[in-house]
Amino acid sequence: MKNLAEQAVGLLVANNFKTASVFSKYQIDFCCGGKKTLIEACIQKGINVNEVINDLNLLSKTNNDVMPFNEMSSSDLISYIIIHHHFYTKQHMPIILEHLQKVAFKHGEKFTYMPKVAQLFEALHVDMLQHMHKEETILFPAIKELAQQKTVDVYNSSNFILQIIENMEAEHTTAGDMLASIKELTNNFTPPEEACTTFRISLQELQDFETNLHQHVHLENNILFNRVSEGSLSLND
Question: Of the four listed, 105, 132, 143, 219, which is most buried by Cβ atoms within 10 Å?
């Protein structure tokens, strides 16, 4: 079996679409230049192939074990959300958007729904960045402080936080609705038979993003936010 350096870039992406994010990071063409081996593509770009291989290997080390979210402290749960969901969203949304815009530009006349998909995802990207910023700078610190009973008087018990949570949950619903519209437009992220590599990859990326977003919202709405509304933060921290 060939090692990674000797495998064609297009084949690597075909076998695992998540590798597209690595190749996009290094601006390696996995579509039209997909027949080049990884070492050939890296030499052409003047990139250290070992750095790319290290990034590719990290993809295979993702921990898929079930996490004991309900047993986590609120502080640990917040850290998990930021690392595994906020970071993922910030890292992957620009890449997905770039792919969707490329498809919309090249194939929008034939597949007329793709410009709308790109437009919706661009709006979702903007909304998610603002949403996560509010969580990271206002809501999450307030929840941590409330759990430690440091700022109860400042925030008038938990009313201040509950109001923010209500807004965050409404934004979750809006994000879910936008992604549902994208899913409907793309027939459940199904590529047409004649779709190019980038077209197929972008839809697979959208499906993966949906999975991540669903867990993201679940951890916040059903576990973290629930603790605040039920007044059980002190029991978990």
Answer: 143
The pair of three-digit structure tokens given for residue 211, joined into one six-digit string: 């999975």
Helix (H, G, I), strand (E, B) or coil at 37: strand
The pLDDT-based confidence of 154 (bands split at 50, 70, 90) is: very low
- Cα 139 from Cα 124, distance rounded (Å): 20
Contact of 44 with 36, CB cutoff 8 Å: yes
CA distance 83 to 103: 30
| Interval 116-131: pLDDT, tens | 999 999 999 999 999 9
For 7, phi then psi, to 5°, come to -90, 150
CB 149 within 8 A of CB 155: no
Predicted TM-score (pTM) above 0.85 = no
- Convert the pLDDT of each residue in 168-206 to its tens digit: 999 999 999 999 999 999 999 999 999 999 999 999 999
Sign of the torsion angle spanned by Cα atoms 206, 212, 217, 222: positive
Contact 192, 111 (CB under 8 A): yes
Q: Judge whether 139 and 228 are in contact, CB under 8 Å.
A: no
In the chain, how many H helices and how many E strands? Answer: 11, 0
HSE-up of 171 (CA within 13 Å, CB side)?
21
